Amino acid sequence: MAKLCIYNEIVDEETKVMYQDWYGTDGVCFKDIHEFLDSMKDDDGDIDIRLHCPGGDCIEGWAIYDALRTSGKNITATIDGECSSMATIVLLAAPKERRFGNKNARLCIHNPAVAYLDLWPGDRLTADELEQLKSKLTAQQMSLVEEQNKILDLYVERTGSDRSALQTLMNEDKYVDMDKAIELGFISSTVEPNTASKHNKNNKKMKVSIENRTLAKLLSMAGVAKIEDVAVLDQKITAADGSEFTVEREDGDPQVGDKAYPNGTYTLDDGTVVVVSDEVIESITPADENNDEDINSLKQQVADLTAQVETLTSEKEALASEKEALEADKASLESQVSALTTDKENLTAAVSTLTSEKEALASDKAALEDEKTTLTEAQKSEEEIAILDIVNNAGGKAWLEAVSKMKSTFHTGNRSFQEHQGGGQHEGESKTQKMLREQRERQEAKRNARK
């Protein structure tokens, strides 16, 4: 019998190398198990698996399970300390009657999980990146659900426990003792101490001395000195799967209590199941009883599958609802992006319009400033305006030129003043003075009228 000790975490080959280089620890990968099986002798048909393992990588764990199950070897598995997570899958590579656990060992089953999510592309997420993130999360969720159902299917198949009870324990993610492991069907029994004890009945061997004189004579006639020298003809029985076991019985059908080997469970061609334990036939179950067990097993499988369908239907509905919510979120985000794009275009147009208006106002301001300068330069005083009016009334430019060429013949000696009749002229006022006064009066009247 070859002994396979799995005392480290189950990892892929690359991680195992990293553990060895970085931490100085070791791991167990599928390649290790493959090399172990290749190294076994062809005539060695038994493997004794010893487990003290926290579990690990799902892919490697399934590969190890498949390699052991297809090895064609008689597998026995014993929990030495801890058997958790994917290590429980390796444990189930052995048949139930050859699965054991030390009394103080512990077992843990739980739902598969990812260690971390490496999904964030950056600090800022666009609408497209959010959509990609949702797709990645949904894909990871579906992968975990499939892995969880796959593990649960194997647990139900290899332990015979109720699916809902197993799922509840997986949800709790806690350790259980070996009594609970037996109740759930992960092991068949605990390993009893085998240290020497004079009070241990299992270690006692009774010897029976035959002192029957008649029997002694018969043995002597047969040329045999003692009963132990009589050769017993054994029965070699072939099971339906081609495996063989030997029963120390000369004739007749095997019976419970007969010495037999090797240990194991054997199903005969007629459906009878023979269980050999401690090299003694422990039980013989007729085919009819097996059929009843098969029917009950099928009923349980139908019930489990029905529950599984209901669970998957519920998960499908939940995923459909989540999909609708994600689509609604996507539509909302697209609407927001569209609105923001429209606002941006409107703001860009408004900025362009305001810029044009600003340039036009700047141009108008410059024109107004030029006009102001022109008007300021062209503005005349009231006195200048009055003089221009007098000149215009007197005859304009021609009159002014004529007046400017005239030479005055008046002087203080020959100037005198006369009073004119008509009362319209002020006393001592010349015609020019009168004209200027009247002009001023007209201007004053205009100003008063404007007021």
Short description:
The protein is an alpha/beta fold and about 450 residues long. It has helices at about 15-25, 30-40, 60-70, 85-90, 125-160, 165-170, 180-185, 215-220, 285-380, 380-395, 395-405, 430-450; strands spanning about 1-5, 10, 25-30, 45-55, 75-85, 100, 105-110, 175, 190, 235-240, 245, 260, 265, 275, 280-285. The strands form four sheets. Strands 1, 4, 5, 6, 7, 8 and 9 form a seven-stranded mixed sheet that branches. It has a three-stranded antiparallel sheet with strand order 10-11-12, with no helix packed on it.
Chart the SSEs and their pairings.
Elements: E1 2-6, E2 9-10, H1 13-23, E3 27-28, H2 30-39, E4 46-53, H3 58-69, E5 74-84, H4 86-91, E6 99-102, E7 106-108, H5 127-159, H6 163-172, E8 175-176, H7 178-184, E9 189-191, H8 213-221, E10 235-238, E11 244-247, E12 260-261, E13 264-267, E14 273-277, E15 280-285, H9 287-378, H10 382-394, H11 396-405, H12 431-450
Parallel strand pairs: 1-4, 2-3, 4-5, 5-6, 5-7, 6-9
Antiparallel strand pairs: 7-8, 10-11, 11-12, 13-14, 14-15
Helix pairs in contact: 2-3, 5-9, 10-11
Return the string of H and E elements: EEHEHEHEHEEHHEHEHEEEEEEHHHH
Tell me the structural class. alpha/beta
> Which runs of at least 5 residues are low in confidence (pLDDT < 50)?
197-213, 420-425
| Largest pleated sheet | 7 strands, mixed
- Share of residues in helices: 40-55%
Distance between the termini: 132 Å
Report the portion of residues in β strands: 5-15%
User: How many strands in all?
Assistant: 15
Measured on Cα atoms, how large is the radius of gyration? 58 Å
Alpha plus pi helix count: 12
Mean pLDDT: 82
Shape: rod-shaped
